[in-house]
Design a protein that fits this description.
The structure is a single chain. It is built from four helices and no strands. It is mostly helical and 138 residues long. It folds into three domains: 56 residues; 31 residues; 47 residues, no CATH class. It is elongated and about 105 Å long. The protein starts with a helix and ends in a 15-residue tail after the last helix. This is CSON014823 protein. Keywords: Coiled coil.
Length: 138
């Protein structure tokens, strides 16, 4: 490597080193503000409880338990979404149900015609008098 390439690499390294330091400083500020928020939130809750005001269970939760509750809610939502998706995938659609209904009617008509032909051969009842009973379709 020549001197020019080494200078370029040094410039790049120094640039990213300064960016890394800036990011670490920003992260430290964010963590500090988060800790201040948590301590203030917990302090406010303790003051409200000690002052004798009645709080509901939802207002009484601290930050960590609220996060846990929210994670559980998200898990449950994902489970319900997956169940709904699987039911929708494996549930027959209206067209499939209509096709099954038509096939069932054809099968019933075929069976009733087979029964009628076997009865007419053995009893020889006139077809004008013959009554057929079976399921009523709406």
């Amino acid at each position: 490597m020549d001197g020019h390439e080494i200078d370029c690499l040094n410039d790049i390294n120094s640039k990213y080193a300064t960016l890394e330091v800036q990011l670490e400083q920003k992260l430290a500020k964010i963590k500090q503000s988060e800790q201040e928020f948590i301590s203030k939130y917990n302090h406010d809750n303790k003051n409200q409880i000690s002052s004798g005001s009645q709080l509901t269970d939802n207002q009484n939760l601290d930050y960590e338990s609220a996060c846990k509750r929210n994670q559980e809610i998200l898990k449950n939502l994902e489970k319900f979404k997956a169940r709904f998706r699987s039911k929708a995938t494996y549930s027959p659609v209206q067209a499939q149900l209509d096709k099954l209904k038509i096939l069932y009617r054809e099968k019933l008509e075929q069976e009733s015609s087979n029964l009628n032909s076997s009865k007419s051969n053995s009893l020889s009842i006139p077809t004008s008098i013959k009554k057929t009973y079976g399921p009523t379709f709406v």
